[in-house]
Amino acid sequence: MKYSQFEILAFVFGALAIVTSVFVSPGVSPPAAEVVAQMLLIIVLGAALHWGRNGGFIAALLAITVYVVMRLPLLESQGLSADLITMLASRSLTYAVVGVIGGELAARIKYIFAKLENDSLVDGVTGVYSPRFAAEAIVSGVGQWERYQTEFSVVRMAVDAGFYSAFRQGRYRQVMRQVAGHIRNDIRMVDDLAFAAPGTFLVLLPRTPLAGAGVVSDRLAAGVGSLLGLHSDALSVSILAASCSSIELRALAESLHPSDEAVHLRDSAERDRVAGGSAAEPGHEPTA
């Protein structure tokens, strides 16, 4: 199952459960404010599923603010009673759990689905997408631009090897996972993250022009630099957009996962090189 399908199913069934809880609750009809509060929960759920933890967090904050404003008349009439505090706290906690924890789970599920579909699509070190997935996504994104002028951009972020070269394998793996988690939580769910090479990440941005990719790259560079305590010269960032760098993007895709034809030509050249070297070695000259 693709994540887009899971997102739709999770949202539909989640929304139905929330609506059902409003109108099927025993007793008297719920106040209008509580009905609106449940509708806000649907919005938070949708944001968490589509934009991940950061989007869910922002939606949760907005929902909490709206709910508190709706309860101001009750606060003025009753004061800050224990019942009102409990009501506000329970609503806030619900929004936070659905928005933040739900968004984090959604981001992880996205990559789990890819791994279940094909183990080679997910990198074993970081848990995000592999170079093969990135290559296929880049070819598809460039094709969408060439056929329909649908924007597509890639942000390449590389940590200088001097930063992690002395790390043991376990420490290196931990740091790369931390960086991957930070980037994954700072991009939209529609965007993809791949681990292209040691210390190098690719952020794949569908429907994003060069200017938008620039905003994303600045934000991610600041966040990763702060996370690792890096100076600006220890973190290189570059942007390729299909609208102006389609050739470079195709070359990048080929370097990440060579096509079958390229692999065949490379293997043939290697065999010819080995055969030529063997023929030139002493004792291999043809005898008369």
Account of the protein in words:
With 288 residues, the chain is of the alpha+beta class. It has 2 domains: 3-117, no CATH class; 120-259, Alpha-Beta Plaits, CATH 3.30.70. The chain is 68% helix and 10% strand. It contains 10 helices and 4 strands; from the N terminus they run αααααβααββαβαα. It has helices spanning 3-23, 32-70, 72-78, 82-117, 131-148, 161-164, 169-185, 210-228, 242-256, 260-280, and strands at 152-159, 192-197, 200-206, 235-241. A 4-stranded antiparallel sheet has the order 2-3-1-4, sandwiched between helices. A hairpin with a 2-residue loop joins strand 2 and strand 3 (200-206). Helix 1 (3-23) crosses helix 2. The protein is elongated and about 65 Å long. It starts with a helix and ends in an 8-residue tail after the last helix.
What is the N-to-C succession of helices and strands?
HHHHHEHHEEHEHH
Tell me, briefly, the overall form. elongated
In total, how many beta strands? 4
Can you count the helices?
10
Low-confidence stretches: 260-267, 284-288
CATH superfamily of the largest domain: Reverse transcriptase/Diguanylate cyclase domain
State the assembly state of the protein chains. single chain
CATH class of the largest domain: Alpha Beta
Number of domains: 2
Rg for CA atoms: 26 Å
Q: How are the strands ordered across the major sheet?
A: 2-3-1-4
N/C terminus separation:
66 Å
Helix and strand content put the structural class at alpha+beta
The helix content is 55-70%
CATH topology grouping of the largest domain: Alpha-Beta Plaits
Mean pLDDT: 86
Strand content: 5-15%
